[in-house]
Amino acid sequence: MVTGNTNMSGNRQRSFDPSPPYALEARDVNVSYGTSRAVLDVNLKIPEHTIVALIGPSGCGKSTLLRSFNRMNDFVRGAKVTGEILFKDSNIYDKAADPVLLRRQIGMVFQKPNPFPTSIRKNITWGPKINGYQGDYAALVETSLRRAALWDEVSGKLGESGLALSGGQQQRLCIARAIAMDPDVILMDEPCSALDPSSTLKIENLLLELKERFTIVIVTHNMQQARRVSDYTAFMYQGELVEFGPTDGVFETPQQELTRDYVSGRFG
Amino acid sequence: MITLGIVLVLLGEAVLFFEEVPLVDFITGTIWAPMFEPKSFGVLPLVCGTFLITCGAAMIGLPSGLGVGLFLNDFAPNWLRSIIKPVLEILAGIPTVVYGYFALTVVTPLMQRMSPSVEVFNAASAAIVVGVMVLPMVASLCDDAIRAVPRSIKEAGYALGATKCEVALQVTVPSALSGIVASFILAISRAFGETMAVTLAAGSTPKLTLNPFESVQTLTAYIAQVSTGDTPQGSLEYKSIFAVGMLLLVVTLFFNMLAYYLVKRFRTVTE
Amino acid sequence: MASMDDMLKSMSKSVTLTTGTANLGDSQIEHKAMIRAIWRPRPKRRWLAGRIFFLLTLLSTLIGLISLIFLLESILGQGWERVSWEFVSSFPSRIASRAGIKAALVGSLYLTGLVASIAIPLGVGAAVYLEEFAADTRLRRIIDVNIANLAGVPSIVYGMLGLMVFVRICALGHSLLAGACTMSLLILPVIIVTAREALKTVPMGVRLAALGLGATRWQTVRAHVLPTAMPGILTGVILSLSRAVGETAPLLMIGALSYMAFVPESPMDDFTVLPIQIFNWSARPQDEFRVAAAAGILVLLGVLLTVNACAIFARMRFQRKMQW
């Protein structure tokens, strides 16, 4: 299976280069957990101010790849990353690179909403506070919540617990929390998978607004979602990047047979 | 059923005791001298001794127990964890009398070498030993509480560019707080009710002092002292131990209820 | 790190951003506030704080490890030479060098056996009843809280209870039986709590499957639930037994002797146990007795280790059987 895929993907993935500047650039990235290899030789260029969707069947390594962009795999025991990931012209896996500073600039939103068990306000101010934000915190809270389209719903109850919100609101709170750090890139790991359709719709609309300001990489198992929101789509299968290109192209005229089978719903 | 039995027995004897010694004297008196004439039953010196040792033990056992819990979760690799855990269990399983021996033969001489004014029986070495004794309990309960904090919340902290220390102290610990506090309370209650180590190490001089290098007597040590001596049943001293036991029971029950309540609340928060 | 230029560039873009709900006039003012804001991450200082934090936790872990090593070292150093067959097989004596622990050792083993035969059936029975049969009533909840509380009552208070109930009211005297009853009371709550935890971990499916085959509730518990929960129950039982072996205070209360020149033969005989012997020797000023105490501790720890090893062995056997 694996060898077959190698043949199929060939040089195809490298043949497509979106126009620079790039927010993130992965070069020959491999991720392994112990003896099992989750991501194999991925090369991927993510242009600034776009939404890039990573799609593929479960276990294809898309979440692992996403988590290697802000070194969250550091916390997984036995995880090993090789290759280079360039962010602002330097390799984030360089010995001199500081993962803490990196994560301050590359935000992340997780699969399940995970607000801190404190007030809404504190959820947002905590990150900027530990990173030495010197500005007006009240303004920061309001701006972030407005950008996450949550302000109108929570403006009167900033002191209440973030856990008291509904699932969709919690997820938007997590997005607001990430925005408050004013990152360059936001990574999203299936942000809507735990939400109902109307919350999902809200978040998708939000993404389209946010890309004016941030670069967004989103992992999703929902192909319709990828089509609706993303500018570029990367299809991964069994750890390899099979196809990468403009979203319309990937879905309407896929170059690889595997991609065609997947987007037409024949497997996965 | 058993509680009822305990309460009844203690209450019965304690009432007899209080017939002879007024409750007010018992609680506010500052001299505890059941063996001498005139007899005096002010419980404050015993409470003071107990308090001294409990505080000392808490100062040693609680922070380091929490420290171990954090270390196990945030820094220790798997192999180290698999060594430390059994060691803690061994420490927790050592009989308390052994700790008493340890205090008397190792800790006290060590302290005497540092400062000759230290008495053979002193509160400090008892406190140190009791602190070490409750450490494994605090450590394993804190470890459980910290492990129960959802991984996703910690990851959210890291993803915002926080260091390990910041996540541990500002995210993990507050989330696990009620579990941690419950472990603290249980440890305090255990130190409070500890008998053997304290009897051996702290001596049997009821004294109203806050100097940890003097000999003191605790509530439990008094009970042990009376029951090992030749005190005739029915005498005033004999009855006095039930009054002291009653006090002991009330305080520990209070602590335990508090801890139980906290743990219950903690469960509803995490689930 | 983002340079100021980058920051300003990205900030200025935000002015043109329109969010679905934001009022544009307001947010422009706020964005200006954000542009003026400076981030001072102070990585050095935070790195240092992290180091200090790490060292502190490491230190507290070391306290535990070091005190264990220190403790074992001092006991081994003092007592190792005293441990001999003679030490184990002779009675205590006024002359320190001839004192032995025969009576105490036998008393301890005897007591443990009695405690096990009293406390295990009672404790496991109570746990099974509470977990499998009792209805969730107000009374049961009171019992729940009660048992949890009892586990935390100081052991010496149990001693006082034992003194009153078993020694005086039941007139058992300072006998082994009275000691065993007191100890059983002491460890019952622990057994009940751990056994209930073990029963709780048995998946509901096992129960439903058996009941669905037409088994009665009791048959279900006996044939399926108990065996599944056995490793957990055993662990709890053994741990509480080893607590009983090491416990001193309650027995001191009910009047176990510290000097015995004979071996107890029936449950009604007077007795002494290892921890009391150790306590007695440690409290004496002569160094020779301290050495004897250290040797006694070694034997006690040996007994405890054996008991725990048995527990681990038994648990492993049960677990192997469980892997169907």
Short description:
The complex is a heterotrimer of chains A (268), B (271) and C (324). With 268 residues, chain A is α/β, with parallel strands linked by helices.
Order of strands across the main sheet of chain A: 6-7-8-3-9-10
What is the name of the CATH superfamily of chain A?
A: P-loop containing nucleotide triphosphate hydrolases
Give the second-level CATH assignment, the architecture of chain A. Answer: 3-Layer(aba) Sandwich
CATH architecture descriptor of the largest domain in chain C:
Orthogonal Bundle
Look up the CATH topology of chain A: Rossmann fold
What is the C-level CATH assignment of the largest domain in chain C?
Mainly Alpha
> Measured on Cα atoms, how large is the radius of gyration of chain A?
18 Å
Structural category of chain C is: mainly alpha
CATH domain class of chain A: Alpha Beta
What report would you give on this structure?
The complex is a heterotrimer of chains A (268), B (271) and C (324). Chain A has one domain: 3-Layer(aba) Sandwich (Rossmann fold). Chain A has 12 helices and 10 strands. Chain A has helices spanning 2-9, 12-15, 62-69, 99-105, 120-130, 137-147, 151-154, 167-180, 197-210, 223-229, 247-252, 257-263; strands at 22-33, 36-47, 51-55, 79-87, 90-91, 106-109, 185-189, 215-219, 232-237, 240-246. In chain A, helix 5 (120-130) runs parallel beside helix 8 and helix 6 (137-147) packs across helix 8 (167-180). Chain A has 268 residues and is of the alpha/beta class. In chain A, the strands form 2 sheets. In chain A, strands 6-7-8-3-9-10 form a 6-stranded mixed beta sheet, with helices on both faces. In chain A, strands 2-1-4-5 form a 4-stranded antiparallel beta sheet, with helices on one face. Mean pLDDT of chain A is 86; it is low at 1-14. With 271 residues, chain B is mainly alpha-helical. Chain B has one domain: Orthogonal Bundle (MetI-like fold), CATH 1.10.3720. Chain B has helices at residues 2-20, 23-28, 44-74, 78-93, 96-114, 123-147, 151-159, 164-175, 177-193, 196-202, 219-228, 236-270; strands at residues 32-33, 40-41. In chain B, strands 1-2 form a two-stranded antiparallel ribbon. The mean pLDDT of chain B is 76. In chain C, helix 5 (102-133) runs antiparallel to helix 10 (217-246) and helix 9 runs antiparallel to helix 10 (217-246). Chain C is globular, with a radius of gyration of 31 Å. Chain C has helices spanning 4-14, 24-36, 43-79, 85-89, 102-133, 138-150, 155-169, 176-200, 204-212, 217-246, 249-254, 274-282, 287-322. Helices cover 74% and strands 0% of the residues of chain C. Classes of the chains: A alpha/beta (268), B mainly alpha (271), C mainly alpha (324). Chains in contact: A-B, A-C, B-C. At the B-C interface, helix 1, helix 3, helix 4, helix 5 and helix 6 of B face helix 3, helix 6, helix 7, helix 8 and helix 10 of C.
